[in-house]
Amino acid sequence: MSEIELLTVGRISVDLYAEQLSVAVEDVQTFRKSIGGTATNVAVATARLGHHAALMTRVGDDPMGRYIRHALEHTFNVDTRYVKTDPSLRTPLAFATMEDPAEPTIDFYRVPQAPDMMIVPTDVDREVVEGVRIFWIPASRFAFEPSRSTVREMLGWRQRRDHTVLDLDWRPAFWTDVATARAEISPAIDLATIVIGNRTECEVALGVSDPERAAEELINRGVSAALIKMGGDGVLVATAHGEREHIAPYPVEVVCGLGAGDAFGGAFCHGLLSGWSIADCARAGNAAGAIVAARLMCADDMPYLADIELVLQRGSVPAGI
What we know:
Strand 12 and strand 13 form a beta hairpin. The protein is built from ten helices and 13 strands. By secondary structure, the protein is an alpha/beta fold.
């Protein structure tokens, strides 16, 4: 096999998207099935842009787990050598409804425990973690054991090598309260080289929601680049070299707000792997995020490179893209 360029670690589920928009779940008649989860979607998005992406997670020994593995391998071209099968836990489901398309509702079915939270260090090759060009960790990994200890051990193997990316990825349903989340997430900042999060996620991890202050704190804690997502105000990019740039968004009529951040992540990884500046990586990320926001699905609707290049050239998202 060719060398893995990106390894993501995290959540996976069978996602069911309401096909009737702007209605409550009780009025939904049909759902469309796919796969999802932050780490999963970032791996899918990066693979779609031509890179060798691998995912570390676990699925259940059940039909939905087999569906996930088949979809990753045959539809999305994601390396599944580190997708393990749990012998007792069921593959999770997530139902997405678009009563408010910009802020969809997600109902997670992950009881009594999701297999992806049961990862252990022996599920992965240490030398891959140490050497992979991008190692991507969503902060939800720290919500439960043994995932929390496993990821901390892998970050220790990594020794803050470029590019170690912490996606602040705030999922309130996974935590008892913000104080607990901050106590578990914040130490990982000191092991990352790049941190990505929106204002709410920065408030959770740092106790600071102002983008400029959040970026400054992240840089002061040793990260080489901080990217603060500001919704309709774009993205603030800050680097340890003193660069500060606001990357403008690409306005779009939102069909589903889910997956836009993960599309950003995939395009951002493409830029890192292509040797682009952090600002140019974020610019491509904004384009990819806008494309996916104009579509219903996450994994299935991740853009191809030609889509992103078209938006970057035009400065806008063409209708029907």
